[in-house]
Design a protein that fits this description.
Blueprint: E1 2-4, E2 8-11, H1 18-25, H2 28-31, H3 42-57, E3 61-68, E4 71-81, E5 89-96, H4 105-119, E6 125-131, H5 135-143, E7 147-148, E8 160-166
Parallel strand pairs: 5-6
Antiparallel strand pairs: 1-2, 2-3, 3-4, 4-5, 6-8, 7-8
Helix pairs in contact: 1-3
């Protein structure tokens, strides 16, 4: 799949993106707020890409690489995943290389994915989990009209806040 926004291209990642996925998923600034095993080399990044392809085929995830309209290099990724059994709720995930923070890139990508999720996938609610210290992510979610659910906690990672956006 491939979609365009005003400034961005959101597309399926491929095996040719292994080096860029390695750079994004092993970035220490991005990972300071995440709990994941980062790839250590291009082979592990390729393994991640292949697992995403399999999950995409099985409709477990909708995952896009983000690049600018005029340059194909990946700047980040965005996804909908952890779909509810009835497929009315999903979780939003995203990451962006620090050099591109503060430029509205992720806001543009998030707006596209939210619209796609509600209109094309018929979601009723999209959730986002973010670390309470990740102020940029909190600001992005609030700008995107997500509401903090103060009555929910992430039992696996209690330092996370849970934001929700219902279909309007």
């Amino acid at each position: 799949m491939r979609f365009s926004t005003q400034r961005l291209v959101l597309r399926t990642i491929t095996e040719y993106d292994a080096a860029e996925i390695l750079g994004i998923r092993s970035n220490t600034e991005i990972n300071q707020f995440l709990h994941r095993n980062s790839p250590q080399n291009s082979f592990e990044a390729l393994d991640f890409i292949l697992s995403i392809k399999k999950k995409t085929i099985n409709k477990e995830i909708l995952f896009f690489g983000i690049s600018s309209q005029n340059h194909p290099q990946l700047l980040g990724t965005i996804c909908l995943w952890k779909f509810s059994e009835d497929r009315t709720t999903a979780e939003l995930g995203y990451e962006l290389l620090p050099a591109y923070h503060g430029k509205g890139i992720m806001s543009e990508a998030v707006q596209f994915v939210l619209n796609y999720g509600f209109k094309n996938l018929n979601l009723k609610k999209i959730e986002a989990f973010t670390n309470k210290n990740n102020l940029s992510s909190i600001k992005l979610l609030e700008k995107s009209k997500f509401i903090l659910n103060e009555n929910r906690t992430d039992e696996e990672f209690p330092e996370n806040l849970i934001f929700e956006l219902n279909e309007s």
